[in-house]
Known about the structure:
The complex is a heterotrimer of chains A (791), B (283) and C (157). By secondary structure, chain B is an alpha+beta fold. Chain B folds into 3 domains: 7-53, 2-Layer Sandwich (Uridine Diphospho-n-acetylenolpyruvylglucosamine Reductase, domain 2); 58-173, 2-Layer Sandwich (Uridine Diphospho-n-acetylenolpyruvylglucosamine Reductase, domain 3); 179-281, 2-Layer Sandwich (Enolase-like, domain 1), CATH 3.30.390.50. Chain B has helices spanning 14-24, 37-42, 78-83, 85-90, 92-98, 104-109, 112-118, 126-131, 149-152, 226-232, 238-245, 262-281, and strands spanning 7-9, 28-31, 50-53, 63-65, 69-73, 135-140, 143-148, 153-155, 158-159, 166-173, 179-185, 195-204, 207-216, 223-224. In chain B, the strands form 4 sheets. A 5-stranded antiparallel sheet of chain B has the order 4-5-10-6-7, with helices on both faces. In chain B, strands 11-12-13-14 form a 4-stranded antiparallel sheet. A 3-stranded parallel sheet of chain B has the order 1-3-2, covered by helices on one side. The longest helix of chain B is centred in the last third of the chain and has 20 residues, at 262-281. With 157 residues, chain C is an alpha+beta fold. Chain C folds into 2 domains: 2-76, Roll (Ubiquitin-like (UB roll)), CATH 3.10.20; 86-152, [2Fe-2S]-binding domain (DNA polymerase, domain 1, Orthogonal Bundle), CATH 1.10.150. A 5-stranded mixed sheet of chain C has the order 2-1-5-3-4, with helices on one face. Classes of the chains: A alpha+beta (791), B alpha+beta (283), C alpha+beta (157). At the A-C interface, helix 2 and helix 20 of A face helix 2, helix 3, helix 4 and helix 5 of C.
Amino acid sequence: MTEMLESTKAIGRPLRRKEDAKLLHGRTNWTDNIQLPGTLHMALVRSPMAHARITKVDLSGALARPNVVAAYDAASLGDLNSGVPCVWPVTDDTVMPPFPALTGDKVRQVGDVVALVLATDAASAEDAISFVDVEYEPLPAVVNMVDAISPGSELVHDMAANNTSYVYNLGGGYADEVAKHPDAVIVKRRFVNQRLIPAFMEPRAVIAAPMGMSDEITIWTSTQIPHVLRVLLTLVTGIPEQNLRVVAPDVGGGFGGKLQCYREEILVIQLAKKLGRPVKWTETRSEDMVATHHGRDQIQDIELACTPDGKMIGLKVDLLANMGAYLQIITPGIPLLGMFMYPAIYKMGAYQFQCTGVFTNTTPTDAYRGAGRPEATFAIERIVDEMAAELGMEPMEFRTKNWIQHHEFPYTTVAGLTYDTGNYEAATAKAMDMFGYKALRAEQEARRASGDPIQLGIGISTFTEMCGLAPSRTLGALKYAAGGWEHCTIRLLPTGKVELVTGTSPHGQGHETAWSQIAGDILGIPVEDIDVIHSDTGRSPYGMDTYGSRSLAVGGQAIKKAADRVIENARPIAAHQLECAADDLEFANGAFTVKGDPEKTVTLGALAWAAFSAHNLPDGVEPMISGEATVDPEDFSYPHGTHLAAMEVDTETGKVRLRKYVCVDDVGNQINPMIVEGQVHGGLAQGIGQALYEGAEYDSDGNLLTASLADYLIPSAADLPSFETGTTVTPSTTHSLGTKGVGEAGAIASTPAIINGIVDALRPMGVTDVLMPASPQNVWRAIQAAKGAQA
Amino acid sequence: MIPGKFDYVRPSTVDEAVAALVAGGDDAKVLGGGQSLMPVLRLRMGEPSVIVDTTRIDEMKGITDAGDAVVIGAGVTHDDVAKNALVREHLALLAMTTEHVADRQIRHRGTMGGAMAHADPAGDQPPVALAMGASFTIAGPSGRRTVSAADFFVDYFTTAVGPDEVLVNVTFPKHTGWGAHYEKFNRTAQAWAIVGVAATVRMDGGSIAEARIGLTNMGPGPVRASGVEAALVGASTLEAIAAAAEHAAEGTSPNSDIHAEAEYREHLARVLTRRAVAQAAGL
Amino acid sequence: MHHISVTVDGTRYEADVEPRTLLVHWLREGLGKVGTVVGCDTSNCGACTVLLDGSSVKSCSVLAVQADGSEITTIQGLSAGDDWHPVQAAFKECHGLQCGYCTPGMVMSAVDLLAENPNPTEDEIRDGLHGNLCRCTGYHNIVKSVQYAADLMGGTK
């Protein structure tokens, strides 16, 4: 009997997604699909220069064009020209320059917005922007971070001396710890974690509409954060919160790039309110490349000290983090999300971290899949390989010698985090088995011996990350302005169906399916009878949205708690109907049953009707049954895994081929393993993309050279292999469902695995690093440089 | 994303197309398959006043056998070129190269003639035309003329086709029975070739009797690796091919851009020429 | 304005269009066929892929006026009503989509590929779909979906 019931459980099953029918039939509701009568279309005049003083803006030419209704520059927009917010000043003295939606004095990046045109159709708006006459007085562009912080550099903002936004320090005592070991082996490296562009497939779009003559205004926007955005738009525009409704319709990917309060959202809502009619803006891909925030972009000086027999002593990290031209929502905080992760899975005595936030005349950076943690994981996993080589140790053996063993959890790391659980041994053993590690090492030896022009390398990445953002008190201590809780309301409808209102905001993750699985199991209600409501502050007023692998880790706990409360709220009605004490009831499979008397039972569905009709409720019990919960997570969660890449390197051309990729991820309990696997696949593609293909490049004048998908190379199906994925399950003990989060694992772990594999292939030739992306030319140059050094 | 305004003409004969171009003046532009022109229009990098759509001109659509040559209408799509039996039998290198042009959707719509007239130095097919000695029929206000491939490709994105002229067809001498191989070296499948090497060889008793080598993206236009071709005559070993391939970068003037610098392109030309010839020769 | 007559998803439409109107814009804004989407402006992403007279094309790279007299199939015309085309069914079964934005184009490209090659290898699928970009799935399950669709449609392994 138990087994039969187990098999009907939804949790843990690869249920096919509820979301897919509409997506596969094209019956979708992307923001750009929305057409409202009387809409004005906005087009933006963007700066072609990275750094220049604006000496003239003349709108008259554009205003004379057909179908143009209005045009504004910073001066004429006046009080409505709100600032774009930053909510994470990481230090008391973080320099936070103003970032007006329309810039009036200077442009500070290519793509900065100088003016806007509103027309009755999109084509007329686009036609008219070339008739806005803007004159610039060019200033030297600050592009390179090392130059930017050098004395005498041109300033991006006059208020930011040395182009520095902040200097953040954590930990210390590295030198003292190393001094205790006179024979310490030290490896230093400078890694460049290059700038990336999120490149979600759906370009951003926004439409705002005043509702009749009321004060209400609704904004539909392609965002990951409708709830956070509502608060921010209220704060920056002054529109009362209760009058503002934010809807994220179907959203086509985000990866952090839609975790933002963008200037275009501010402009559209201000103009809709001012003009009393709908205003719409849809970006082109070329606009997106300069106007959507970028990710990564750090120069990482990292130093690892070990004993000669391979025990880690301490780690020192000194970062330059490129903020770009302005601080956006959490720009300064991104490197700090990585700060805790440099010591990763390793035990050591000292850790010292410093990060300098640097302004440049480039697109602002902010969250991109992993946000700080991929950068940290890359640096530590790369230097671990370099140290192993220095010590003459096998790189996996070196890791094994230093990682936290499974019996040592919970373990407080040198960075101050307490990892609740983990089993690096198990994940690694499984991954090495799936990979055929020994056989590939043997093949590597054979190719080396024969001088094969195609060399083989094995790339290792054993990683952990902090997910489930985040305990609100921790966020407060880090000076982040908001909390990290999540909300869920579950309502039983009269006919026994269920509405589940979540504060998470999916954009591809399949929450409608997975959340139904969680609630369905707890309530004993079929998954198809549950409707998940999300991404609309009018229907789901409380939430903290979707980013940082938080939705299941935090939001899942709220679902569980809300569902438990539904059962508790139904219990007195069941006891009343079954004429027993509430404590005499047990709840299973969607029904209350009197303990020891299985004939006396009532389903939740029947109770829903009873609570609706309210004809026969016990005294003091209110009609209708629902449960609400807002959960602040007890701690972060710590997924981990072992990723292995077999890289073939054509030593003649520098071209690499990812021959085999194996990963074993431990994300704790899994609600829907099909979705888990899909998240890993997608993360891998982005992490491999960083390693091999992607990189935003600027010229010395601050022009983005990779300003379209023709030049910014994101991999296609032909550029990636199939992946071999596996999992181990070590449930989180700090999260009520035992889950940890999976959204970022693939993107975090894969980049160093790929680069370690390339370097491993070429190490006998003297290669010790390859610049990312590891384009054929970069690999070829590394080989040539090594040959030159050896000659 | 929305092109600027233009007038649109859809002639049904070559003469009508030429007349429309003459009437349209300097700003008139021919639209073939449009796969190169449409991005230019969408990004407003070009704003022609008149678009002359040649996709409905029957004369430009056929592939015909002309005895010792195959004539390919300028309006034939890449997909039709690559799958055509005459092309596959007599112009194996062209078929093979055309399969590597862009992607399925673009090959369905884009035309070989359009790609030739666009003359992107990273284009896959112009070096094939140059190496195989193709000739181009161009129609203009004063009639038709034929231009050799060597004279057709003039500079970056510039050909012998004048602003009031239309490319009608391309004639390729048959290379029946020649071995062929195209080495396209790009960073992703969607990306343009950093370098491409198109090689076709006639074998005679296990050694190379004749070779034709065209290089993509090694200069402002397609480049013929004449030094390699000469050195390959009589080659019958991989060593001989490798020695010949060392001449591949001679006379080239590759660009430096974000994907590759000139020095690296020269290196690639040598390595890829060796590989392409070895494949084409079956050695 | 130019008068055009185009059959889209089985219905013949007559319209007057500006020459500069892209086919994708006419489908979306003129006909409300918003299942077909725009993802880029350089012909890379393939999200706008439709069948034009049976062959896949990027509808951002065709003028509406050029489609005059032709027959277009979009994602919304692939199956009738709530029916599922085998490729649609396979993408659901194999989790070949996440956010779903690339999906209309990806599905139409897969339909086109399978029409020409009913039994493609993995390499042929990967090469055949390289005109379509997806940022969510890493393509792993898209490839599986196409293989599964080939099975459903009678191809053999």
